[in-house]
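Structure ticket #2291
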Amino acid sequence: MKKIFLSLLLTSCFLSINAQEVFMFSPIVVADEDIESFEMIQKKYVTEMAEDAVNKGTIKQWALIKKVPGIGSPDNKINYMWVGVYKNISQLANRDSWWMNTEEKFGIPSKVLFDSPEVERRGRYIYKTERQIQTDKPGKYVILNWATPNDLPKMIELQGSIEKIFKKSIIKSGMVGWGMATRIVPQKKDLSTAFWWDAYDTLENAMKHLAGQAASAGVTKDLIQSFNKIVPNGWDNRVIFEFVTGAN
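Resolution: structure written out below.
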């Protein structure tokens, strides 16, 4: 539970190039005045229930992350995201509402526990892991990247070369995890079809990555040109999130 988002999701949750594994993002909006209460409930109650769900095999892993203020987003209101990781689509599709078992576990009805503070939900987005690098090093920040390649299979193939470069500077650059995934649902023309994560130990190193330093400093011009040909419009969005709590 103490490992942060990078080790929870980007290093240990996404098993090495496991094409069966899927994960779901559930972005939400929490009002500023409710943040303290919201995080308390998530850490004290929801995390324990998530641990129970992991132990029962209902889910593989779970985490809550929060957006670092002032760094990119098409919707500035979204400030938190639940992340659920599943062994495969079957486990995801047949999951139960494990977070609602609060009365049996804590003696507090879920309606009482979750009705205040209220959160504004912004949908659910499901992805399949295509490639990844994992380490046993904990991290605290993760860059979430979205793009819409004009040739998705070719982009997945290109990641093999990116992976080799990142492996050379993993750890010493502060990177502790990396990966690429493709969107399963929803599917519509204005939504990115590909997703990447870059996990780092500090905010400084995450920022360096966005500036073309840290692990990304080793990416060659040829690879950048190849990437840009497949994504001529560039990144759809890049945001830094920070780990709050989780279960694995």
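Closing remark: Residues 35-56 form the longest helix (22 residues).
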